[in-house]
UniProtKB/TrEMBL annotation:
Organism, as annotated: Polyodon spathula
Keyword set includes Protease: no
Keywords: Leucine-rich repeat, Nucleus, Repeat
Descriptive protein name: Protein phosphatase 1 regulatory subunit 7
Cellular localization per UniProt: Nucleus
Family classification: Belongs to the SDS22 family.
Length: 275
């Protein structure tokens, strides 16, 4: 069924958006006549393989998240793709993206990926999401010079490295890993959001040059020295800090001391400051 009642349609012509979310589709098929399709949404079905998309040469947005894909394949003809969502599948390897020169967003969260690879030629990529995989190292990112958002939460990373060429990066999410030291951010001076919550960090350091920071998430670590907050004093636009569940929080003057050390802050943990 295609229901287009009361949509102010003025002309019958090429279908541009097709959404088949949350159904029981097992195979991608019978789309050959939809060459004008711009967006295809197959989120939450039972698809095992990316196939039969070669006729959709105008496709810009493809979402096959929450299916049972094991491989990234069948994308070769989709050279105009701007956004690709393959979250929550069973993908083990990043591959077959060599033709996706226009790709701006790549979502591969909640898969089984162990290595960041085969994406260094995606020079137009703006946002990369790799959360909840099995990645152990930040690597092969040098070619992503236009990247502004990198999310790699809930992996197995122990060091912040390999980000030196990402000078346009604005949001970096590294929570729920095994990081022990804040380092390797010397060239990422445009960062506005830094999330390193739920790691094994004992000291806030090496971020005094991040003067554009607006959000700093550092909860669930091992910070115990109030002097560490001096690293954030150059961030004159800092509005939000998360420091809960660090040893610092045991101090009865916890919130007051943060307010005195960082007077621009408007939110401490999940609570806004009242003036």
């Amino acid at each position: 069924d295609v229901d287009l009642i009361h949509c102010r349609i003025g002309k019958i012509e090429g279908l541009e958006i097709l959404s088949l979310r949350q159904n029981l589709i097992k195979q991608i098929e019978n789309l050959e006549e939809l060459g004008c399709l711009n967006e295809l949404d197959l989120y939450d079905n039972q698809i095992k393989k990316i196939e039969n998309l070669q006729a959709l040469t105008e496709l810009e947005i493809l979402d096959i998240s929450f299916n049972i894909l094991r491989r990234m394949e069948g994308l070769e003809r989709l050279t105009k793709l701007r956004k690709l969502f393959l979250m929550n599948n069973k993908i083990c390897k990043i591959e077959n993206l060599g033709h996706q020169q226009q790709l701006e967003m790549l979502e591969l969260g909640s898969n089984r990926i162990r290595v960041i690879e085969n994406i260094d030629n995606l020079s137009h990529l703006d946002s990369l999401f790799l959360g909840t995989n099995k990645i152990t190292k930040l690597q092969n990112l040098d070619g992503l010079t236009n990247l502004t958002v990198l999310s790699i939460q809930s992996n197995r990373i122990t060091r912040i490295e390999g980000l030196q060429c990402l000078m346009n990066l604005r949001e970096l999410y590294l929570s729920h890993n095994g990081i022990e030291v804040i380092e390797g951010l010397e060239n990422n001076r445009k960062l506005t959001t830094l999330d390193i919550a739920a790691n094994r960090i004992k000291k806030i350091e090496n971020i005094s040059h991040l003067t554009e920071l607006q959000e700093f998430w550092m909860n669930d670590n091992q910070i115990e020295n109030w002097g560490d907050l001096d690293e954030l004093k150059n961030a004159h636009s800092l509005e939000t800090v998360y420091l809960e569940r660090n040893p610092l929080q045991k101090d009865p003057q916890y919130r007051r001391k943060i307010m005195l050390a960082l007077p621009t802050v408007r939110q401490i943990d999940a609570t806004f400051i009242r003036f």
